[in-house]
Amino acid sequence: MFGLAWYLGIGFVLFCTGITVMIARKSIVAILIGIELILNGAAINFVAYSKFVTQDLDGHIFPLFIIIVAAAEAAVGLAIVIRFYQIRETIHIDEATQLQS
Amino acid sequence: MFHKVLIILSSALTVASAIGVLVTKDIVRACIFLFFSLFGVAGIYASLGADFVAVTQIMVYVGGVVILMLFAVMLTGGPGKESAGSKGYLLIPMMGNKITFGFGIFSGLVLLLTMAKITKSVIASVTISEVEGFASTVERIGSLLVSEHVLAFEISSILLLGALVGAAMIARPRKNV
Question: Cα A19 to chain center, whole Å?
């Protein structure tokens, strides 16, 4: 029962929830939370394929790098959010219009 | 038996908390739900035999990223403050509307059909390996990181240094602006 399809299903649910959070939420911090969910869904797929298909450890290396990149992205993204709040005094995504023409 | 209980519990925790992130209105509650969801993902890694990845997930994600997000929420006004911004939005925005939710669910369905078509042949041909003795993967991952994947390992150190310096530069308070 708990084969490859089970883990792919969990990864799919995480990915879709992340996409929907990114589309539906209006707060920049919530959009970053959605990005974290998407990255986790992808990483589950890597580990599941490495256990059920290739049976080596290369699939364990990729989640480590995904975690590293997600940590760096969260640090820079939240720094941008704090700076944006200092300037505009809101974190609503529709207020971020500085780069629009 | 223990393996099945671990799989079921961590899967239920992951999926339920992810849906909680989606439907809750409070941003702090979304952060707490994200905490539990990432914890469940660590349990899924442990059930797949990836012990080192599970521990790294708990240390970096659960201990680092979620706490960082909570700090960002606190520094940007926190929840429950409902005065309007310069364009009339709420200062701490809550949720989207029906159109954005519908768009997200539609894109999810399209993705489900596409993925099912792509992965059908792989799932049909997979060989189920039985649960072997729980061998630690730390030593083999360590030697892989410094032999085969050493370039990515070094580049990630540069990336982390750049992210650290860049985050400190961006968030630094300035006098004018």
Answer: 9
pLDDT digits (tens, 9 = 90+) for B87-100: 545 544 556 667 77
User: What is the pTM for the complete model shown?
Assistant: 0.83
Task: Assess A74–B contact: CB distance below 8 Å, yes or no.
Answer: yes
Quickly tell me which residue has 């989640």 as its tokens. A63
Average of pLDDT values for A35-61?
Answer: 89
ipTM value: 0.90
The verdict on A26 touching B (C-beta cutoff 8 Å) is: yes
Average pLDDT, chain B: 81
**A50 backbone dihedrals φ, ψ, rounded to 5°:** -70, -30
At B80 the pLDDT is 46
Cross-chain Cβ contact B44/A44 below 8 Å: yes
With 0-12 / 13-18 / 19 or more C-beta atoms within 10 angstroms meaning exposed / middle / buried, residue B102 is middle
Under 8 Å between Cβ of A26 and B93? yes
Query: What confidence tens digit (pLDDT) does each residue in B47-56 have?
Result: 888 889 999 9
CA-only gyration radius of chain A, Å? 17
- Contact residues, chain A, for B108 at CB < 8 Å: 16, 19-20
Cα gap A62→A64, rounded to integer Å: 5
Nearest to B129 among A8, A24, A52 (CB): A52
Angle at A85 between CA A30 and CA B94, to 5 degrees: 35
Q: CA-CA distances (angstroms) from residue A7 to A45, B12, B45, B146?
A: 7, 12, 10, 29
Candidates B29, B35, B42, B30; CA nearest to B64 is B35
| Lookup: tokens for B78 | 């926190």
Q: For residue A2, which phi and psi values (nearest 5 degrees)?
A: -90, 65
As its CATH architecture, domain A4-92 has Orthogonal Bundle (1.10)
